[in-house]
Model the fold of this input.
Amino acid sequence: MQIELGALAARHPASARDASPALGPLDLRIAPGEQVAVIGPSGAGKTTLLHTLACALRPSSGQVRLDGRDPWALPAGALRQLRGELFLAPQVPPLPPRQRVVTAVLAGRLPHIGLWHSLRSLFYPTGIAQAQAALAHFDLAEKLFDRVDRLSGGERQRVGLARGLGAQPGLVLVDEPLSALDPARAAQAMDSLLAAARERGATLVCTMHDVPMALRLFPRVLGLQAGVVAFDLPAAQVTPDRLRALYAQHLHELEGQAPPVQAAVPDAAPAPVVMHCR
Done:
């Protein structure tokens, strides 16, 4: 899926109308099938960018086009269809705690199946083999019929990524996919995600706190600072000086000493946690 942003600006949904945009104005073009890492300090606008691309947040000004279509100029039915062609994986997956993993993964296909099929799949899941194959990419095949509230934070995060593979979207948007994973699991998850997107020709945009991994795995890196593009370069051209300038007020994040985020819980089974699905 091709992405085109023109003088785009966006505010956080909870911000006041007269508040400054959290993002932009910025211009950006991503070709179909490209894989782009978005880096930058906390508050740079990375998550706001993903929500705007996911058609979940309407721009306050400017324009977004996905495969030449302006989402906010489409009729409601066409907008729902467009949203069904993309997948947004948030940092904390909204997985109902009593749901089985197989159902959580197959939920990625809901935009492409009818109402009756959707309801039936809650009790008699179809596509079990596809769900297991998606989980196998993240070393979770044996968790197929486990309940979500029996999973660790890292396992829930990997289930969210497996749901994205099962959805087979044209645009994959992933927000900090490694926050709850140890280094070995993080590398495995990113390799699987990149390979699956490459195999299907899907466009992948991924926000990353792990800067060395972003530079190692992604051919193109976008640096955001205070809501605007500080640089948009091939990974090989992102120098240490550019990174220090990007993280000037947040060098602890660049050095990997940022405080853990809420999702960063140990990869051992914790007590059940109530999670709400939007």
In short: Confidence is low (pLDDT under 50) at residues 257-278.
